[in-house]
Design a protein that fits this description.
globular; mainly beta; about 40% strand; single chain; ten-stranded parallel β-sheet
């Protein structure tokens, strides 16, 4: 009953919650300010025009990867749009079965986002990661360790390796490590940064999962990376089953096609090293 009353007050704009659980299907939370982790434990929840100023004591800013304990099924239909997500220990947003749209995700302790099945990330701006002063954070713009039906489109990843005060492992780290990686579309993005800007297709040391029907096309890449733009360790020593990633029509920021020279994207720069 307390949770329902809390949700009603949020919907009415009576209170600006520091943190909490959203447990009402169809809830719409707008124009609120959060200072702790928000957990989405309901279907068809919308988080719109909210700001998150999260300390490194909270694991996430928005945690939208939960299952219904009664049905055993994941909560679906989450929409996160026009939000400013700053801080958190692990990632600003962790989500599955969600759409993340026009969000500014920045100053995270480690990653900007972690995503799993049936998730779209579009028109977002990601920058300034690895802000924790303790430990050695592994900082990715978006990380997925397994997922199907993922779309990453029309985003900007400003994660230059030379940016002071930040860390940058990869703009995208997509691996079939704990599940298959299927039906992934990555297009229309601007990537800059990382040791490699994109890691794609790793299967983990067991090699039990596969990649298939995945596409990387019509993206633009900047030069401020450490080693290269694309790589996949699964092609170099792990028990990888099949290479099923199509790449086409990718460019440098100045419009030069990336299909020749030492950074031939069609040969997965770095795979032979």
């Amino acid at each position: 009953m307390k949770k329902l009353f809390f949700a009603m007050l949020c919907l009415m704009g009576v209170i600006a919650p520091a943190f909490g659980d959203i447990t009402t299907d169809g809830a719409v939370i707008e124009d609120q300010h959060f200072t702790g982790q928000l957990n989405i434990k309901a279907n068809n929840v919308t988080i719109r025009r909210c700001t998150f100023d999260i300390s490194f004591n909270s694991w996430y800013g928005i945690h939208a990867r939960h299952w219904d304990q009664n049905t055993g099924k994941p909560f679906t239909g989450t929409l996160i749009e026009d939000c400013d997500v700053k801080g958190s220990n692990s990632a600003g947003i962790y989500a599955h079965h969600a759409t993340i749209r026009r969000c500014y995700v920045h100053d995270s302790g480690a990653d900007a986002m972690k995503i799993e099945d049936n998730t779209t990330v579009e028109y977002c701006y990601v920058t300034q990661l690895g802000k924790k002063t303790t430990g050695s954070p592994h900082c990715d713009g978006i990380q997925s360790r397994g997922g199907s039906n993922l779309i990453v489109r029309h985003n900007i990843f400003a994660m230059g390796i030379s940016e002071p005060g930040t860390k940058s492992n990869a703009c995208l780290m997509f691996s079939a490590e704990v599940g298959d990686m299927r039906n992934v579309q990555i297009y229309g993005n601007r990537f800059e940064g990382g040791n490699y800007s994109i890691y794609f297709g790793e299967t983990g040391k067991t090699g039990n999962f596969v990649n298939e029907n995945n596409y990387i096309h019509d993206n633009y890449f900047g030069p401020d990376f450490k080693y290269g733009v694309l790589t996949s360790k699964s092609f170099r020593g792990y028990n990888y089953r099949q290479r099923r990633v199509s790449i086409d029509r990718n460019y440098w920021f100045d419009g030069t096609p990336m299909n020749s020279g030492p950074f031939d994207i069609n040969n997965w720069d770095g795979d032979s090293k």
